[in-house]
Design brief:
heterodimer, A: about 950 residues, mainly alpha, 2 domains, two-stranded antiparallel ribbon, two-stranded antiparallel sheet, 38 helices, 4 strands, B: about 110 residues, Helix Hairpins, about 65% helix, elongated
């Protein structure tokens, strides 16, 4: 049990460190380094606790339920393999933190660096320890994202930004593929549990989807560990600060890919496809990386390609998949992490001390920085595979596996030659690193005078090089037990114990090593000059660069293709878009309903009422007339629209929807007023336009007419089909049964709005508030056009004087009506819960009461006597509705739970006092506010334009006078 | 009666679609109003035509019509008014900004209508 919790602590610890370091001051170098270092050291201490149970072969687990329905739990497991890997990550992490403390400049912002580093460590640990394949993908993606932030730490530089983006795009695409692969795997196995998946190898390999899963999985793993052809992001990521490179590209990020390959080799491996894909890619990467590394002039570039090459080696071993190969792969993961981290750090010191990483400018540094030089030389020798160093032993094991017969395919047979060939180049580039940087004539013209760095910058390198030496000389006693433990965890408990020794006799692998050492040295000595003088990359090949292909592709996909598509199929005009929208809707509806639209055999009968038919005859005439006249006779069209609206309202009334009828009627009024106000500011269009009689315009109208007729016909058919079918029992029945019992109201529609579906209503009134504010915001920058600022004809000239008081009588009547309308509004509101009415219609009624005052009287007169603050109405309305909802929370009910009861009031009698009523009050206030805001804001424009007119006239007069 | 309402919805839709395809702003606004009539009635009739059966609980009532479509349409009516208001404002703004009242501000190929 305690181990369970400790695993969770282990995963959470780095994230906690990330949060703490993120909150430190910008220049707290020491504090951040101490906290990060201690966090990682604490992790290492935990690993020491885990060692004993893991060594017994037990699998430790820690599980937190997360989304059980999706089988997605925070489940972590630790076996020998992940123990080794986690320890490696934490140990290198501690050294990187020490190194970074002395590497970063005083001006570099500290919290960002250390918190990203900690978060990255946490993501990496989570990935390594995940016991659930979906959780693994989550942490996998997290490493991609955080590595993007780390690589782009010096975001001021173009190279850092580009490198970070490239790394993110490549690894995130891989992560996406991996996610799909894992989802399919989970489906095949029937569980997302890692143990179940790893144990179902036969099932997975026999499944028809196996090739797809394998391909997606490998893309994920290959992108992460920079395998050919996805290797190009890794050199680009060298723009990161050196501690980041040392961490990401030795022990963590890129190793995640090979970790996955080895981890899943029991589940996915063992087939011919796996061997060809994985070993083939690994060998190609091994050779390509080694060859390119020899020709790089940049120190970190050389190391980057060397990393790619070594990752290829590990991948190739994972592809071979024999027990010895897996052990060798794990061993090489550790060895490469150790010597590559020390080399990156050494390269960082050289860069730090000399100011350059160009090997053509560096030379003879052995005299100036002998200690660093010695360390780097030992590490580089380990990289080359010189005997008595750790790199040698795992390389020997690789050679032994290459020589061994596995499946007799051409790839298997050619492995020894390919391995030796790559190794020759590995020796050559290591030699080049040593020879050019540390030997030769003293350096000239360096940006800085090199000195030995501060000892603490060197300590991590010393520690790592010491490990290289110790492991190289005593592999069996130092790493032997944990390696066997790790291999058993991957391959199963019946794996034999491997004896790892330095000396296996003068066998074939040793001869291959010697050939590689000799040939590599020869290769470098012969071509040293040409390489230094040559381009940045191998001859011929340097022109074909994967990075450039990637950039072309990115440009094409993210820039050219969208523009091309936009040119071809896009339009910036609204009308064609609307036309396409209507046509698409028609096409899809037709495609779906074709031959499916069956009419009921016994249609619901509804005897035709002549009065109603006559009514709609008028309505139809109104609609057609409005469509006909909308262009030139806008006022007429508006009146006709109102006619059609009125028919709609009567339809609601006829078919038992009193609430709708009332609301429609009231809204019809405000809509008409709104459109009238709008017409005031739109250009007049009475004259006939000659172009309208042209053929093209006629054709366009005909086309639109056909589209409209088709749409109308379609909707008519669908509605007829709907109406003639019997109503299936639905949720409406439930509302009818429970409206009174649970909602305390007899008007079911209102109870639905303010009680059962109050949350929807709350959303809708919020929309209304947003709409009101939008109108208000649009009007604030409203400046009337000059042609509209003139007074309307009716108000000008001699007629104006006569018409001065033409609305006096209606105005007075409307003023008298004002209190009556308020009472009507209150009446609508109060009875809403039981009878037709409610917040919406009452709100619109009150808004109309305000509005008619504006219509009947002078705006200034009204404003002087009546202050309406629509925005406050809206605000309070929303607040009341929201507070009512929250109030339910005080009594322990969910949001917007209503309570209903009747209260006896003196004189008035029984009054419903449901909390829903309070909610309805909010709706009411908001509707009043929004409606008044929209209408009065537009109406106010005449005031403003009058003011503008007043301002303009004196100016114009003064001009004339001048 | 069913047929009459179906024809009515179709007619309102056709008028609405024809008007929203016009090139000037005012017809487009009218068209959208027509469309909202049509859609509201369409949603409403999905509760079927039931004269004389208002969904108001009463012991004497012979039965009730489906209240749910009515609740849906009620808010839709008010919101469509809000939408019309925004459109009117946008039309006015476009007219003031561009000096004409065409829907497509950068329309130079298709003049007229």
């Amino acid at each position: 049990m305690i181990e369970q919790n400790l695993i969770l602590v282990l995963v959470m610890l780095p994230f906690l460190g990330a949060v703490i370091t993120a909150t430190l001051p910008v220049n707290a170098h020491n504090a951040a380094a101490w906290i990060s270092g201690l966090v990682l050291a604490a992790g290492l201490a935990l690993m020491a606790v885990f060692h004993a149970p893991v060594a017994e072969g037990r699998i430790l687990r820690g599980v937190v339920q997360w989304v059980p329905a999706l089988q997605l739990n925070l489940s972590f497991r630790m076996d020998g393999f992940s123990w080794l890997f986690v320890t490696l990550v934490l140990a290198i992490g501690v050294l990187v933190v020490i190194y970074a403390r002395y590497y970063l400049l005083k001006t570099d912002p500290v919290p960002r660096f250390y918190s990203f580093l900690m978060a990255f460590t946490g993501a990496m640990l989570g990935m390594l320890l995940s016991g659930n394949i979906l959780l693994l993908v989550v942490f996998w993606e997290l490493t991609s994202v955080v590595s993007f932030l780390l690589i782009g730490y010096w975001y001021q530089g173009q190279a850092a930004r580009d490198g970070a983006r490239m790394a993110l795009i490549v690894t995130a695409i891989g992560g996406l593929c991996l996610m799909v692969a894992m989802l399919i795997l989970g489906q095949i196995v029937g569980s997302n549990d890692l143990d179940r998946v790893l144990g179902s190898g036969d099932l997975i390999r026999a499944h028809p989807l196996y090739p797809l899963v394998l391909a997606l999985f490998l893309i994920g793993a290959f992108t992460k560990s920079a395998q050919f052809p996805f290797h190009f992001w890794l050199p680009g990521a060298m723009a990161a600060p050196t501690p980041v490179s040392a961490f990401l590209h030795s022990a963590t990020m890129v190793k995640a890919g090979v970790f996955l390959l080895i981890r899943f080799s029991p589940a996915l491996g063992g087939t011919e496809a796996w061997f060809y894909a994985v070993t083939g890619t690994g060998m190609a990467t091994l050779i390509l990386g080694a060859v390119i590394a020899l020709f790089r002039h940049d120190l970190k570039g050389l190391l980057a390609y060397s990393t790619i090459s070594h990752l290829g080696l590990i991948t190739a071993l994972a592809g071979i998949g024999s027990k010895g190969a897996i052990l060798a792969a794990i061993f090489h993961i550790v060895n490469h992490a150790v010597f590559k981290a020390s080399l990156f750090m050494a390269a960082g010191i050289i860069d730090h001390e000399t100011g350059t990483r160009d090997m053509r400018r560096l030379s003879g540094l052995m005299r100036l920085i002998p200690l660093t030089g010695t360390l780097a030389i030992v590490a580089a020798a380990a990289m080359a595979g010189v005997p008595m160093l750790n790199g040698f032993i795992s390389k020997e094991m690789f050679f032994a596996e290459a020589v061994d017969w596995h499946n007799g395919t051409w790839l298997d047979n050619s492995l020894p030659y390919l391995a030796t060939f790559a190794s020759i180049f590995a020796v050559a580039y290591s030699l080049r690193f040593i020879a050019t940087v540390f030997f030769g004539p003293p350096p000239v013209d360096l940006p800085k005078e090199p000195h030995e760095p501060t000892p603490w910058l060197r300590r991590p390198v010393e520690a790592l090089v010491l490990i290289c030496l110790v492991v190289g000389m005593m592999p069996g006693t130092t790493l032997g037990p944990v390696l066997n433990q790790a291999a058993r965890a991957v391959l199963g408990p019946d794996t034999p114990h491997f004896d790892i020794a330095v000396w296996h006799g003068f066998n074939l692998p040793l001869q291959m090593s010697l050939v590689a050492l000799l040939m590599g040295a020869l290769l470098y000595l012969v071509f040293a000059r040409q390489i230094a003088a040559g381009p940045e990359g191998p001859p011929l090949l340097h022109r074909i660069r994967a990075q450039r292909i990637y950039e072309r592709l990115l440009l094409a996909l993210s820039w050219r293709l969208p523009r091309l598509l936009h040119q071809r199929i896009g339009t910036e005009k609204l009308q064609p878009q609307l036309r396409i929208l209507v046509l698409l809707a028609l096409t899809f509806a037709a495609a779906v309903l074709w031959r499916q639209l069956a009419y009921a055999t016994e249609p619901l009968a509804n005897p035709l009422s002549p009065a109603f038919a006559l009514m709609w005859l008028v309505g139809a005439a109104c609609a057609l007339g409005a469509a006909w006249q909308a262009k030139y006779h806008r006022f007429a069209a508006l009146v006709l629209l109102g006619g059609a609206g009125l028919m709609t309202c009567l339809t609601f009334a006829w078919f038992s929807a009193p609430d709708l009828a009332v609301t429609q009627l009231l809204v019809e009024i405000v809509t008409t007023v709104l459109l009238l106000l709008g017409l005031r500011w739109l250009p007049k269009r009475r004259e006939e336009i000659a172009e309208d009689q042209m053929l093209s315009a006629r054709l366009r109208r005909l086309r639109d007419f056909v589209i409209a007729a088709a749409a109308g016909l379609g909707i008519a058919l669908v509605s007829y089909a709907v109406m003639t079918r019997p109503l299936i029992p639905n949720i409406g029945d439930w509302f009818l049964r429970n409206a009174y019992k649970e909602g305390g109201g007899t008007n079911v529609v209102n109870v639905i709005l303010v009680d059962f579906r109050a949350f929807d209503t709350f959303g809708e009134i919020t929309v209304l508030a947003v709409v009101g504010l939008t109108v208000y915001a649009l009007l604030r920058r409203f400046r009337p056009a000059t042609e509209s600022t003139n007074q309307p004809e009716q108000q000008r000239g001699e007629a104006a004087a006569a018409l001065q008081d033409y609305l006096t009588v209606p105005g007075v009547i409307l003023r008298w009506m004002f209190p009556a309308m308020i009472v009507v509004s209150a009446y609508f509101f109060m009875r809403g819960h039981d009878l037709p009415g409610g917040g919406f219609s009452a709100g619109v009624t009150l808004a109309i009461a305000f509005l008619v005052q504006y219509l009947g009287s002078n705006v200034r007169w009204v404003e002087a006597r009546l202050t309406v603050l629509p925005i406050r109405w809206m605000g309070f309305g929303l607040l009341i509705a929201g507070a009512t909802g929250l109030g339910a929370g005080l009594f322990g009910y969910p949001f917007l739970t209503a309570h209903a009861r009747y209260v006896d009031l003196p004189l008035i009698g029984q009054v419903p006092a449901a909390t829903a009523m309070l909610f309805d009050l909010g709706v009411y206030a908001l509707v009043v506010g929004a409606t008044v805001l929209m209408l009065i804001a537009i109406a106010h424009q005449s005031l403003r334009s009058a003011r503008l007119r007043d301002q303009d006239t004196p100016e114009a007069e003064s001009k004339e006078a001048a | 009666m069913n047929l009459l309402i179906a024809v009515t919805i179709g007619l309102l839709t056709a008028c609405g679609v024809y008007l929203i395809l016009r090139l000037r702003t005012f017809p487009v606004i009218l068209g959208l109003t027509f469309l909202s009539y049509a859609v509201n009635i369409f949603i409403f009739i999905s509760g079927r035509l039931a004269p004389g059966l208002p969904p108001i609980i009463d012991k004497a009532a012979p039965g009730y019509t489906d209240p749910l479509p009515q609740a849906l349409v009620l808010t839709a009516i008010v919101i469509s008014f809000g939408m019309t208001a925004v459109l009117v404002l946008m039309a006015i703004g476009a007219h003031l900004g561009a000096g004409h009242d065409r829907v497509d501000l950068r329309d130079d190929a298709e003049a007229g209508e």
